[in-house]
Amino acid sequence: MKIKITIPTERIHNPIISESIVETGILINIMVANIDSTYGELIADVSDFRFDKIKRALESRGAIVSILDRPIHRDEEECIECGACISVCPMNVYSFDGSWSILVDEKKCIQCGVCIKMCPHGALKLGE
What we know:
Layout: E1 2-7, H1 16-24, E2 29-35, E3 40-45, H2 51-60, E4 64-67, E5 72-74, H3 84-88, E6 94-96, E7 102-104, H4 114-118, E8 124-126
Antiparallel strand pairs: 1-3, 1-4, 2-3, 5-8, 6-7
Helix pairs in contact: 1-2
């Protein structure tokens, strides 16, 4: 299952992820990480049956954990089908069909959020 781990400003300098992995013995696959000196957000994959245990460990250290059970949502009314999402998606989730309309293959989505940042109309949102 894909999860989002948010590390608030006051906890960013603590080894939250490392300590949680060592404590639980549960390995997580970090797919995307955006961390700087003020904030941290990671998208990771963890096996479903181990989620509760790793969540407890992360949250006990101040992280916020949420399940990403839906991939990126596209607001079709707001989308102008410019193709900005196509050019930046590392997993080729987006493509044009024969009539230049955007096609979305949600199964490929790793919920990295790159397309959200690039969409000039704010038509894409991470589905939680």
